[in-house]
Design a protein that fits this description.
Distance between the termini: 44 Å
Helix content: 25-40%
Number of strands: 5
Oligomer: single chain
CATH architecture: 3-Layer(aba) Sandwich
CATH class: Alpha Beta
Largest sheet: 5 strands, parallel
Shape: globular
Strand order of the largest sheet: 3-2-1-4-5
Strand content: 5-15%
CATH superfamily: HUPs
Amino acid sequence: MQKKAVVLLSGGLDSTTVAAIARKKGYEIYALSFRYGQRHEAEISAAGAVAKLHGISRHVIVDIDLRVFGGSALTDDIEVPKHLDGKIPEGVPITYVPARNTIFLSYALAWAEVLQCHDIFIGVNAVDYSGYPDCRPEFIQSFESMANLATVIGTESQKSISIQTPLIDMTKAEIIKTGIALGVDYGVTTSCYDPADSGEPCRQCDACLLRAQGFADAGIADPQLQKY
């Protein structure tokens, strides 16, 4: 029987690469995306396109509303920072959504238990990222320990739950090269925090700058930009 995995899929560069890695490892993929009150629908559309291209068994979009709390430029009436000089300031940016990965992983854990699978994939990265605390290896290790204490599948089965983070130590360029080798079409992905209604990226937010630098370092043209 083919092993199953829940893959958190945002429609972005990292999560799309993770889905390709999980598929290469032989997993049957169950993708989980969130409409969580973010300021645009572009990533939901991108996640759907990625799911189709990767032959994912099932793609679930969960509706939750983190706008009721706010506190982030992605879920509140706060302007997304733009950097005309192309430089990302140090420190945790206002685009950090409080506890987002904890929430997303909790949903993934619940679905994994229903599916009776032990592997959850998430595209966190601790090298080329925006300083988010819930992208660090320490957080992932702590969540994995909690997952194995908080579920029937974690406490009563012979195999532990594993939170798989294949990109955790990669640079953005390494991630892109890995994805290209696996046949990923980055043209259908989106990274921008504040895209136009057409989906065109702003090219000036943290996510756009990190993506642009990654493609530049990899020596590859970003196929998403060729559409606009």
